[in-house]
Amino acid sequence: MDVVDNYRFKISGHEFVPIVIGGMGVDISTPELAAVACRLGGIGHISDAMSPFVCDKRYRTHFTQYKEKENREYKDSTDKKNVKFNLEHLYQAQRTLVEKAMQKKEGSGAIFLNVMEKLNMADALGTLATRLRAALDAGIDGITLSAGLHTHSMRLISDHKRLKDAMIGIIVSSVRALKIFLRSASRAGRLPDYIIVEGPLAGGHLGFGADWKKFSLKKIVEEVLEFLKSQELKIPVIPAGGIFSGKDAVEFLKSGASAVQVATRFTVTKESGLPYDAKQKYFKAREEDVIVSQTSPTGYPIRMLKNSPCLNSTIRPQCEAFGYNLSNDGKCPYIDAYWKAQANGSSNPVTDKMCLCYHFSKGNCYTCGHYVYRLKETSKKAPDGTYLLPDAEEVFKDYQFGAA
Q1: Which of 84, 110, 275, 299 fits as disulfide partner to 363, beta carbons 3.0 to 4.6 Å?
Q2: Which range of residues forms the domain containing residue 267?
Q3: 404 pLDDT band (50/70/90 cuts)?
Q4: Rounded to the nearest 5 degrees, what angle is found at the Cα of 145, between the Cα atoms of 147 and 397?
């Protein structure tokens, strides 16, 4: 019987069980979840989505409170160009988050950090450089570059002493995106150690447009493998999005993939940072409850449950405390959508956009993979009708040794 454990993921002189747990934010891929993957010989991600807020929540720091206090005067203004992050605080938060995660590390696996380019944070390059350098300084095993083309990321850390030591990869959804990244990486003198190919069934923000149904993960992976072969580049490829079982994973490994990235089934584990009530919503979801929405202010489509509390909210923009999606000139589509909805003294729900920062901080945005409705197949019901949460080790080993 062919199972995932028959394969090994070899990268940069290391060898892993070919299972990677994706970096889900905000604080869904917790250090505890990543540590389980690491202990079992695989790779676990943490996410740097809203790292100052996550650091406050976990370690009783006060970065969010300080930022809100410093920018309080702009609360009622639509002009947020002066709402900025303190880069020293951002560095401290990111470094603390990574160091605390690395302290939990044991076993033969690794802990990676998912770093999103699309977190503009009112200073796109400054805040990105700060987050990347803090993670490397804190000793992270690897960095996965996500949510963008990352045309500047390698350059931003080109002089860092750990550039050659840490494993660095990119998430793409097409050969075209990969080509753009490889050109910029080549100019910086540092090609990626791995490539994660994320398909249209993945959770959260998608690298596709409204025509996402026209694409398939299998086809995109084939195209990426063919392109790398044509360029004589031996870079490991890791499919992601819709890989629900060990059988699904083996099919990709047999076809040339080096590992698989999985996430949805880990969202409902005990170690996941998703709130308990949200986990139960995931278990109870039906296929028709899963939507791909255009309400994210990032401009990317986002897969989520249609009963997410973040939709049709009346929450005032929370840029002073958060502001993770603010552009360099202090703009965010939610700000405009909110004030438009409140025109003429009314108090209407915002239907076309959501305040991503606030609702992610509250666990109100039920982002999910397409196959979230299948989670009920993997658990048993308690007498009160709730679903029992599995251990992350149980799910990991089901991928590793399960054939169905």
Answers
A1: 275
A2: 4-273+388-401
A3: low
A4: 100
Residue 345, Cβ neighbours under 10 Å: how many?
5
Whole-angstrom distance, CA of residue 263 vs CA of residue 268: 10
**Tokens describing residue 393:** 């080790």
Q: Mind listing the pLDDT tens digit for each residue in 319-354?
A: 999 999 999 999 999 999 999 998 877 778 999 999
CA dihedral 180, 182, 184, 190 (to 10 degrees): 170
* Assigned domain for 355 exists: no
Contact 238, 202 (CB under 8 A): no
Ramachandran category for residue 141: left, alpha or beta (phi over 0 → left; psi -120 to 50 → alpha): alpha
Please list the residues that pair with 168 across neighbouring strands: 143
Q: What residues pair up with 114 in beta bridges, in sequence order?
A: 47, 144
Q: Would you say residue 40 lies in a domain?
A: yes
Task: Specify the pairing of strand 194-198 against strand 167-172.
Answer: parallel
Q: Say if 151 falls within a structural domain.
A: yes
* Structural domains of the chain, count: 1
Question: Are residues 42 and 141 in contact, defined by beta-carbon separation less than 8 angstroms?
Answer: no
216 within a domain of the structure (yes/no): yes
Identify the CATH number of the domain in which residue 261 sits. Answer: 3.20.20.70
Helix and strand tally (H, E) in the chain? 13, 13
Alpha carbon 45 to chain centroid, angstroms: 9
Tokens 């995931």 — which residue? Answer: 282
